[in-house]
Amino acid sequence: RFYPQENWWPVNAEVRHRTIKSTPLNLLKPSAGLPFLTVPIAGGERRLEPSTFQKGCYFAHEGVVRPNCSHHPIWLAGLPLQILSSSLWEPIRDQSRPKNLQLNAPQTGFNGCAWDPLIRQGAKQNRLLVHSRRSRTVQAVAFPVVSSSADGAEYRKQLAESYGFRQIGEDLPDDVTLKQIIDTLPKEVFEIDDAKAWKSVLTSAASYALGLLMISKAPWFLLPFAWAWTGTAVTGVSLLFSVLPLIYKSMNSLSLLVEDTAWQPVDKKEFDSSPFLRKAIVYGYGPFRPWLSIAHWWRCHFSLKKFRPNEVQRVKISLACVFAFMGIGWPLIIYKAGVVGWIKYWLMPWLGYHFWMSTFTMVHHTAPHIPFKTSEEWNAAKAQLNGTVHCDYPHWIEILCHNINVHIPHHISSRIPSYNLPAAHRSIQQNWGKYLNEATWNWRLMRTIMTVCHVYDKEQNYVAFDQLAPEDSQPVAFLKRVMPDYA
Question: Which residues form the Fatty acid desaturase domain (predicted)?
Answer without folding.
Answer: 260-436
